[in-house]
Amino acid sequence: MTWSRFKDYFTTYLFIIPAFLLFCVFSLYPFLKVFQLSVFEWDGIARSMQFVWLNNFRTGLFYDASWWVSMRNAGVITLLAMTLQNGLALMLAMIVDREIRAKNFYRVVFYLPPVLSGIVVGLVWNWIFDGSHGLLNHALTTLGLAKWTHAWLAEPSTALVSVAVIHMWKGFGWGFVILLAGLQAIPRELNEAAHVDGANEWQIFRKITFPLMLPVFFLVSILTVLGTMQIYDIIAATTNGGPGYHTEVPITRILAAMVGSSRFGYACSLGVLFGVILLAISMVQLRISKWSQRFS
Amino acid sequence: MVPTIQLKNSELATPLRPSQQIQWQRWVYRAKRWTFLAFAHTFCLSVAAACLFPLVWMVSSSLKTQTTIFTDMSLWVSHPHWNNYYLAWTRGHFGQFFFNSLLYTLCVVVGVILISSLAAYAFSRLKFPGRNVLFILLISTMMIPIPGSFIALYVLLVKLHLVNTRLGYILPQINGGLALGIFLLKTFFDKLPQDLEDAARIDGCNKFQVYLNVALPLAKPALAVLVVFNALAVWNEYLLAMLVLSDQALMPLQRGLMVFQGAHLTQYPLLMAGIAISIVPIVTLYFLMQRYIVAGITAGALKM
Questions:
Q1: Domain contains B266
Q2: Which of A43, A179, B101, B104 makes the best surface tag, with the fewest CB within 10 Å?
Q3: The CATH number of the domain where B264 resides is what?
Q4: What is the pTM of this model?
Q5: Does an H or E element contain B52, and which?
Q6: Of B51, B121, B171, the CB nearest to A112
Q7: Do A33 and B145 touch (CB under 8 A)?
Q8: Is the ipTM of this complex over 0.90?
Q9: Is the backbone peptide bond immediately before B15 cis, with ω within 30 degrees of 0?
């Protein structure tokens, strides 16, 4: 290699080095460290760590009931988000995609909740759902439905659904924007040609919109699962896992193991477990997506 | 002989003249369209109201007093207590939290823009060994979910003595924005024509000067997307702030809100004023740059 060639490469690497260094220190190292810590018993402070083989994983998989309760809770919220939130988002996107006025107004307003932080949204809704002076209960009492009032976030029977409602309120605008962008990427001529050929609305949706939107649907569903399973901020600002374990989610359990009971190794093993589960779900969704696209 | 005209059955019962028929179809079409529009706007407006109502109510509550807030449920406050905002800003330390948030956001956004644009330019335009491997490595953090990595990140920050420092909160977030930044900017640079850069090179610019004087100014639309995205992400970040920062003087707004709520559980007017303070900059940024936000989500999501 000649000197000028070497100099050329060297100056080029100067462009990459800042990014690469940050990546190695703050992404690669933690990523590998999580796997290493997950097979140790360690309190986060002591100099010595105890190697415990895969015991942490065994505990997480078979003996920690609260972990699976948290997975189930996140699963329930995800299921609600997949159906109600994305259903609403699709409906709104299909309406706004038509020739109607105030398109941009709707888009701006619907995307306002996703812009806010989970903490802000949680704190505001905290008070709407409050048992003694909450707005919802006040409204119900005024309407004469006093027997329907609840301490929405504090009662075991309503807490999880209330959290899911908050999450969906914050999240639907995001799905709406992506679905709308997908709908607007469909060439108008297709719809018009189908209209001229005498197709009705349902046939157009079934034969044109749905097949062309299938990749977008899968994208939204994958991102919904990833985002909702890792829900944390809203929980932190409203119930913090309570009452009991009724709104515990995986991230709160990982934090509880780490900060609460100082079991860093166990927390890492839960993190690895959770990551593997999320990756598996995404893979299955991707596979279904590839498979279903062969038919259209 | 006059030919007899055979009328069809359908033509016997007073048929419409062509012009009338078109008129009728037009009516049907209009009726359908109006019903659709009425339904569409009612539906969309009610959803929009549901989006806005909690925010409007939050602002109006922030102007009430501790005594009226639980009894007076009206949205319009006749005697607004602007003093709440002053108290939240000073006694509630929201002024301090606010400037911390501003500082963190500024540092992270500048850092992400600088570092990711440098790297993206090299990946797009310059040739060097290991280019593809490095690119995929840097982008991979965007694809793989590692929910537990904040534990190891915390351990690392303890080791580096960066816990409870501003730097320890800023650096991981710069790193967090790099993957999307490099990805967006590389695709943007790839689409730019190379002629301008060649011309600059012939005029005697070196690689860095070409990047700084030609490529970077051309990338403004993509940079705007990145600015908005990272500003939103940093301003709204909570988990890392909770783990890393325990000194109240260093806390950003989201962490400050939680601390305030923990300490003054029932001071709703001040809490609401704090929330209003915390969302003003981000909502302003959103209204000013919402075009770029929409572009950013769709670019980030649909190209993945």
A1: yes
A2: A43
A3: 1.10.3720.10
A4: 0.88
A5: helix B18-61
A6: B51
A7: no
A8: no
A9: no
- Rounded to whole angstroms, the Cα distance separating B50 from B56 reads 10
Q: Which residues of B touch A272 (CB under 8 A)?
A: 148
Nearest to B147 among A125, A178, A230 (CB): A230
CA dihedral over B292, A219, A246, A252, signed as positive or negative = negative
**Which token pair is B33?**
């369209």
**pLDDT, tens only, B95-108:** 999 999 999 999 99
Listed by number, the residues of chain A in 215-274 with a beta carbon closer than 8 Å to a beta carbon of chain B are: 216, 219, 223, 226, 230, 232-233, 236-237, 250-251, 254, 258-259, 264, 267-268, 270-272, 274
Q: Chain B residues with CB inside 8 Å of A279's CB?
A: 144-145
Report residue A289 as tokens: 């997506």
* B141 chain-A contacts, CB cut-off 8 A: 23, 27
Which of left, alpha, beta for A102 (phi over 0: left; psi -120 to 50: alpha)?
Answer: left
Q: Are residues B40 and B122 in the same domain?
A: no
- pLDDT tens for A142-151 read 888 877 888 8
Question: Is pLDDT at B304 greater than 50 in this prediction?
Answer: no
**Torsion angle of the four alpha carbons A173, A175, A178, A179, in this order, in degrees rounded to the nearest 10:** -110
Mean pLDDT of A13-37: 90
* Residues of the domain holding A197: 72-248
* The pLDDT value given to residue B29: 86
Does residue A46 belong to the interface with chain B, where contact is any CB pair within 8 Å?
A: no
Rounded to a whole number of angstroms, the distance from the CA of B227 to the nearest CA of chain A is 14
Q: Which residues contact B99 (CB under 8 A, 6 or more apart)?
A: none
**Can you tell me the mean pLDDT for B246-251?**
90
Instruction: Give the C-alpha separation, B86 to B77, whole Å.
Output: 18
Domain containing residue A100: CATH number: 1.10.3720.10
Chain B residues near residue A30 by CB distance under 8 angstroms: 146, 149-150, 152-153, 156
What is the rounded CA–CA span in Å between residue B52 and residue A111? 11
